[in-house]
Design goal:
five-stranded parallel sheet; Helicase, Ruva Protein, domain 3; single chain; 14% strand; elongated; Rossmann fold
């Protein structure tokens, strides 16, 4: 039962509110001064405080200040017969939930109390959710000294709305960091939407982010909200932000500056409330120097920057993370007794992960899935992790000039073989394979389609 603490120096008001709120199903305590309020809060923390602005020699603002200083502050509603716009603004600025003047309407007051208690309940659930997610997220990305700095920044920025740029190599867990920011923020139950900017053509990306109106292009049979609007009070992650073309960069800069989108085919601006995070595996400063990325957009994006270090620079995280991945996979497979052999852990710890955390996760899932025994021996690991050399496919080195030779066909075979080899080295991670070949993600996907290499290759 929610506990409401009424603070007023008039006994008649205290008694009236005690009866009214008790009948509404609340547990009610009363206090006639700041001193009595402090004693009541110390005895049993209130979920909501109703306080008069004037308490004899004391002030309701002192009650508000104390309430907001508590580790888990209750919501505070102030009321007075001498209300002014200035005092109302000041009370709200200092953290009051709302401000109501006497004489107040009973139904209006009860509705205001219900809304305040609902906010308090949601905040308490969010706090519990963040506490539960903290150890789990840390286990999936590590708790080394290098990562401790990352988590410290995450905790500082989570409650705000500033744009955050998360950078790091492919597979280091940039999206996990973004999800941690969202989960530890003020609205963890709101939507979290990740958009891979490098995987979408410019027109498709604009429509996905900003929305479109009916008839704006072929196939636009209805109006559609963009992700930035439909995410509501949630978070939108613009992944691989360095891949977007410059013409789209101009539009995105305007959107971030004005907090409004213009759907494709529309002349009307639509405001949005979602928090925007961005992630990249490129050094955007270098992209700016090369003329491929707008400097003003970079300034807008990196209000706060989080650099996620590669796995090879924090090897103390490898074994705990491998154990965390194995625990999750064993639960999914219904094999709770799965465990690593000591030799397997030693190999995992020594390996240089070009694909970072994602590669480690894939290796653990592969070992758990293929092992016939509950003890994961070294042979369950890929040859490269065991230290066995991985050579270039034969098709890449056997072409010879002679009768019937076709240079175009040979080059196609070589390109296909190199694509497959890059995918193999990157454990199927396309972004990392593209990086190994020195290609953009879009160009890499085009070449895969050109050679008929689908998702199962």
């Amino acid at each position: 039962m929610p506990r409401v603490l009424v603070v007023d120096d008039q006994q008649s008001i205290r008694e009236f509110l005690e009866v009214l709120l008790t009948r509404a199903g609340h547990q009610v305590a009363t206090a006639d001064s700041l001193k009595a309020y402090l004693a009541a809060q110390a005895a049993s923390r209130a979920d909501l405080v109703l306080t008069d602005f004037r308490l004899g020699v004391d002030s309701g603002m002192d009650v508000l200040a104390h309430a907001r200083s508590l580790p888990a502050p209750p919501e505070v509603i102030l009321f007075t017969a001498y209300g002014t716009p200035a005092s109302a603004v000041e009370a709200m600025r200092r953290g009051a939930y709302d401000y109501i003047t006497k004489p107040f309407d009973n139904d209006e007051l009860l509705l205001l109390i219900e809304r305040a208690l609902e906010k308090a309940r949601l905040r308490e659930e969010n706090r519990a959710l963040r506490a539960n997610l903290l150890p789990r997220t840390s286990a999936l990305l590590g708790a080394s000294k290098a990562m401790a700095g990352v988590w410290a920044i995450v905790d500082k920025v989570a409650a705000g709305r500033s744009t955050v740029l998360i950078s790091g190599e492919s597979g280091v867990g940039k999206e996990v960091v973004a999800r941690a920011i969202h989960a530890r923020g003020l609205r963890p139950t709101a939507p979290f939407v990740a958009v891979n900017c490098g995987a979408l053509a410019e027109g498709v990306l604009e429509s996905e982010l900003f929305g479109h109106v009916k008839g704006s292009f072929t196939g636009a049979t209805t109006d559609r909200e963009g992700i930035l609007v439909s995410a509501g009070l949630g978070t939108v992650l613009l992944d691989e932000i360095g891949e977007i073309p410059q013409s789209m960069q101009v539009k995105l800069l305007r959107v971030l500056q004005e907090r409004k989108v213009k759907p494709v085919g529309s002349s009307r601006d639509v405001p949005f409330e979602a928090r925007v995070l961005a992630a990249t595996n490129r050094r955007l400063e270098d992209e700016v120097k090369a003329g491929r990325f707008r400097e003003d957009l970079l300034f807008r994006l990196n209000v706060i920057t989080i650099e996620v270090p590669p796995l090879r620079e924090r090897r103390e995280d490898i074994v705990p993370m491998a154990q965390a991945f194995l625990s999750r996979v064993s639960e999914e497979l219904g094999r709770p007794s799965l465990q690593f052999a000591p030799e397997t852990l030693a190999l995992l710890e020594r390996y240089a992960y070009s694909g970072n955390v994602r590669q480690l996760q894939n290796i653990v899932e592969r070992a758990a899935t293929l092992s016939d025994s509950d003890l994961l021996e070294p042979m369950t690991l890929p040859p490269a992790v065991r230290g066995e050399p991985v050579g270039l496919p034969a098709a890449a080195v056997t072409a010879t000039v002679g009768p019937g030779f076709s240079l175009n066909r040979a080059l196609d075979e070589l390109e296909r073989a190199l694509l497959l080899d890059a995918l193999k080295q990157a454990d199927g991670m396309k972004a990392r394979a593209a990086q190994l070949l020195g290609l953009t993600f879009r160009s890499f996907r085009y070449r895969l389609a050109k050679h008929g290499l689908g998702e199962n290759e």
